[in-house]
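G., the chain you wanted modeled:
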Amino acid sequence: MTSLYHTPVLFEESLEALDIQPNKVIVDVTYGGGGHSKEILNRLGDQGTLVAFDQDDDALENVIEDERLVFVNANFRFLINFMKFHDLMGADGLLADLGVSSHQFDEGSRGFSIREEGKLDMRMNQEGELTAEYIVNSYREEQLFKMFNAYADLKNVKKVVFTLSRERKKKRITTTAQLVELLTAIAPPKKQNQFLAQVFQAIRIEVNDEMGALKDMLIQSEKVLKKGGRLVVISYHSIEDRLVKNFIRSGNFEGELNKDVFGKVLKPFAAVNKKPLVPTDEEIERNPRARSAKLRIAVKE
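Predicted structure as tokens:
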């Protein structure tokens, strides 16, 4: 399955994990180019329903005309609000393909890519107030330290923060090209792209409060899904995957097991796969952006 907007990763694996039956209710909280949603609709019957979320206005151009589709142009952290509004609580499956779409990376003006020049924006919701430009130029040094330590696996956070603090005093940093240029000077020579990608990742996560939204969605999924409903999540970096793994394992994000008086672990989901599914070498060769993907599957108990 391919799309000009986005090439879905672990496509067949994630759809099989949803265990789609003809007349059920499925939720796709990351619609994007509609790749997953199109095939979900193909597998649903005439009485089936697909609820799709996407906060990015660009996704509106990809909305499939199908009376079985309920499209919600909003962040998936508002999952339960819209499911209640449309009277669709008790869904049978929920799919989340996290991260940034190929379209968002390739559209230079959005500011997500280290290779494409554009404004320092990085907003997935283009109506959002916080931008990458504001963070880079206005965050206090302690805020920058906290952000990079939380969202990027960098060994030289101090140098990154010092460089940003020094350079923004000389001239406001407004484009991705400016940011790449000043960071390249302090990047490890043999890991330059990885270093730049991690810095951009941390800023993007902060702009969009991605970890906060993910936590909100996972907590709400317990109420949205019916007993036996499937939770299917594709993550692309260790921070996301750790949250998903801990939530499925323990019902919280710290991974701490809570037990009742009889010693039974209290948690809303049971893991289907103890270890995450990962792309094959063939898929990674076709789509290099798939290399870090991990698929976790759970069933509502």
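The chain has a mean pLDDT of 92.

Shout if anything looks off.
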